[in-house]
Specification:
This protein has about 500 residues and is an alpha/beta fold. It has 18 helices and 20 strands. It is globular and about 70 Å long.
């Protein structure tokens, strides 16, 4: 008899967000259950609860009719739960074999690890997967795709495995590697394991899944046997909500000006010949699914990633940005997606976080800082962007996510940019702060700036943009005018081949 995992009324809150709302369904051994929904629908959050990374606020989950609660991933692993995330969780400096058996390495006298046994067992698994790698290789020397396969083999190697979940596992895999993965999934299914498969790729879902569970806005909205639901019906059930009032009444720029930014056949190790333009006063939205290449476009434009081909023109003049500093000097600034790692400087004050992008202009001769002007600039940013902080000396890490984000925007707006790139600007902030950002974006456009908005929230990208560019597979696959854009059209372009 196969294993069974049952979710009962799982609810999870984050500040200002209900990530999961009374989610209830059952995943059974001997089948592959696909979880489908837009970015932010709650799929990954549910897996993190099952893996012990998060704790649910309400509800429970049962494994083989026994109520469980995992306080951390170690407890989940001990109970036979394996979750393969999009972010790799491997030790780069260790060998493949050591990674596969980390935490359960066989040892002998005086605790000495039996490396011969480790590599012998690991090589058998590698050969079963049909991969061209050795157990003794260091993981850091493998390709990104092979590192992902190491993650998968690590979970597969556990003898007590009851359930394995894959969160977008094929994003970096070749067709051959995908074939290998699907062969292993089929073997696990035949052994009665519970298989949960999260993917936006419709062709993969059709190929591997028996049943599909559909999520929307943190809610479980239903399920179907995969051969009893069409692609269009799946997409319709994943979307179809109103934009709400938050986008009504925005003072959007009506007079779009001339082209400011022109990107021609931009190519990098992560992109395929991307071309588009941005006009003065225009908000150009970039839509697409995880790993579609949207952030990679922005990183290439701003010099954060190497460019291997193509050209960039600003106000008709060809520019070359080898570093983000070059981009800033040319009037192109970016508010990055990862606020904590790439945005704020946590140990610095709110004031210094606002002014750090303008240090060149704040320096006197001999590099001495104009502290009076720096203070004034910080106060201006605090007032103009309504940053809620008792004073500018407060460490920025102690502010809410929305106020941290406002400080980052204030930093780059103080440089008077021509192009403002916003990558997931409202990610992880509450609806009140979101509304403020929407009004800010419209205000920036009315100043004549060109705005590029990257967002995984379809209502957001539709409600703010004048045009929406859709990406899939590291390239642009289409463009839709705002008045013609619907969630169904954008999601269909992002998900479906041809």
């Amino acid at each position: 008899m196969g294993n069974v995992i049952e979710f009962r009324n799982i609810t999870k809150y984050f500040p200002g967000v209900k990530a999961l709302n009374c989610v209830s369904f059952t995943a059974r051994g001997g089948e592959v259950l696909a979880l489908m929904g837009e970015n932010g629908a709650g799929k990954s959050t549910l897996l993190k609860i099952l893996n012990g990374d998060y704790q649910q606020d309400e509800g429970e989950y049962l494994i083989n009719e026994q109520a469980c609660h995992f306080n951390n991933p170690r407890e989940a692993v001990a109970e036979g739960i394996g979750v393969i995330y999009q972010e790799r969780q491997i030790m780069l400096e260790l060998s493949v074999g050591e990674n596969l058996f980390l935490g359960r390495l066989p040892s002998g006298l005086f605790g000495r690890v039996k490396m011969d046994q480790v590599h012998e067992k690991a090589q058998r698994i590698i050969d079963e997967f049909g991969l061209d790698m050795r157990s003794t290789q260091k993981v850091k020397d493998l390709s990104v795709a092979y590192q992902q396969m190491v993650e998968i083999m690590k979970a597969y190697s556990r003898e007590n495995l009851k359930m394995i979940a894959f969160d977008e596992p094929t994003a970096s895999l070749s067709d051959t590697e995908i074939d290998s993965l699907f062969r292993i999934i089929q073997k696990l299914r035949e052994e009665g394991k519970v298989i949960i498969y999260v993917s936006h790729r419709m062709a993969e879902i059709r190929r591997i899944a028996n049943r599909v569970a559909i999520f929307k806005d943190g809610c479980y909205v239903g399920e179907s046997l995969i051969d009893q639901i069409s692609d269009q019906e799946l997409i319709r059930r994943m979307v179809g909500r109103d934009l709400g009032d938050v986008f009504k009444g925005l003072d959007k720029e009506k007079e779009i000006g001339p082209v400011i930014l022109e990107v021609k056949n931009l190519t990098s190790p992560y992109l395929k010949e991307v071309s588009f333009v941005v006009r003065a006063g225009e908000v150009v939205g970039f839509s697409g699914l995880v790993s579609a290449g949207r952030t990679e476009v922005m990183r290439a434009i701003t010099g954060a990633d190497p460019v291997t081909g193509g050209e960039i023109f600003l106000d008709g003049k060809k520019i070359l940005c080898k570093t983000p500093h070059d981009a800033i000097a040319n009037g192109i600034v970016m508010v990055p997606e990862d606020r904590k790692l790439q945005g704020i400087i946590p140990r610095m004050s709110v004031g210094r976080n606002i002014t750090v992008g303008s240090l060149d202009s704040l320096a006197h001769t001999m590099g001495i800082m104009n502290t009076k002007r720096e203070r004034e600039m910080g106060e201006e940013g605090k007032a103009n962007f309504n940053i809620k902080t008792p004073n500018l000396e407060k460490p920025i890490v102690e502010l809410s996510g929305g106020n941290q984000q406002k400080a980052i925007v204030a930093r780059w707006l103080s440089t008077n940019p021509r192009i403002l790139i916003l990558d997931e600007p409202t990610k992880g902030i509450d609806i009140g702060a979101k509304s403020e950002f929407y009004h800010m974006i419209c205000k920036f456009a009315k100043r004549g700036m060109g705005i590029i908005l990257v967002s995984s929230e379809l209502p957001e990208v539709m409600g703010l943009s004048d045009r929406v560019i859709v990406m899939r597979g590291k390239q642009i696959v289409g463009e839709v005018k705002a008045e013609d854009a619907t969630e169904e059209i954008l999601l269909t372009m992002a998900m479906m081949e041809g």
